[in-house]
Amino acid sequence: MTSSAAVPGVPDGSSPPLARRLRVLLSAERVVGDLRRYFGINLPPGAAAFTGSRFEHLSGGGDRPEVADRITAEDLVAVQTLSVTVPAPVALNILEGPLGVRLSGLLRDIPRDTDMADAEAADLAPKSPAARAWQLLEDQPDVGWVIAGKLLARKRPRLLPVYDKVVRCALGRPRPSFWLALHAALGADDRALHRRLLALRQNTGVPETVSALRVCDVAVWMGHRAQGHACPR
After folding, report:
1. C-beta separation of 171 from 24 below 8 A
2. pLDDT tens digit string along 213-224?
3. Using CA atoms, how far apart are residues 128 and 162, in angstroms rounded to an integer?
4. In terms of pTM, does the model score above 0.85?
5. CA 149 to CA 161: how far, in whole Å?
6. In the chain, what are the domain boundaries?
7. CA distance 12 to 226
8. Which residues contact 118 (CB under 8 A, 6 or more apart)?
9. Closest to 21 (Cα-Cα) out of 49, 42, 2
10. Please, which residues have CB within 8 angstroms of residue 168's CB and are 6 or more apart in sequence?
11. CA–CA dist 228, 180 (Å, integer)
């Protein structure tokens, strides 16, 4: 059951459309249980966390300083926990070829310790290093926008969101881009939604190493998936 009551600190009608949509989704009664189930917190005997709960934590995370600016084999395995696979030729090109060199050059210019709510819009704009890295990946054979986004979310979990077909079905295709629309939503009203996501993380017992963006993604994904919506491709 979804409540239409306002989240504290988020005035009705004065926020961007995506902020209003997220306010409703994050107010659903099921959100706390969904987050705990996904991350394996207080599960009954025999129950297991979702494999995606390991996405940000596998091998210490994709944004740890020693590997933050290069895509590793561990990163390629991590995206598989989110039910996608980087095609083998592309994976080899990333690990051993010029594609990996080009991506590393772009990653060096993408902030690592900045939450999306605190970032500058320029960090997410179409000509930014992040957008160029996404486009470079998206253009590779059999990669596409979902895999490209998940791989970059592994490298910059605080700044870049997971955005797949289920989340797109729930939140739509904001213009000029999902990144910029989400950035505006999280920064609106003195960062009220960002603070709401941090509160959800604390109240559910989700580790602090899980970013606010990932809490948002999981809450939206779990709720929309449970409703059984037929999401168009």
Report:
1. no
2. 999 999 999 999
3. 18
4. yes
5. 7
6. 17-226
7. 26
8. 187, 191
9. 2
10. 178, 231
11. 28
